[in-house]
Amino acid sequence: MGIFPFFKKKPFFSDPDQARIVEAIRIAEKETSGEIRIYVESKNPFMDPLDRAAEIFFQLKMQNTAHRNAVLLYIAMKDHELALFGDEGIHQKVGAEYWKNAVKNMIAEFSNQHIGTGIEQCVLQIGQTLKETFPYEATTDKNELPDNMVFGR
To answer: Given this structure, which CATH class describes domain 15-137+146-151?
Structure first.
């Protein structure tokens, strides 16, 4: 007896879109010791998006990078919420205004239905900032966190 699902969950991103976003992460991390992850879920479970991003950041153990320079991009698709959460190393260098501007730029793309492009541009922008503040160190740098997108419920 087989299982026949009546409702198939539609993915948030097509395979090509997801591949472009993961490639943007790889490009962004190529010249920095910093790390970028993306967490996407359908709905935010009734909390402030930044608090949810912080919760996910710590669940993914992103605070364990050597320079405390990991950044999480959190998106709740159906709730139309997003947040950027940077660890203390990067946050001390760029400040709150930087994150607000990055989110504002992403929202501009999202409102034009360019969600994949908005994520790519944000990742590349953060990568450039990480490159300037935490340049790649050939003797010690390693990819400390996976580059894949993480999908929640």
So the answer is: alpha beta
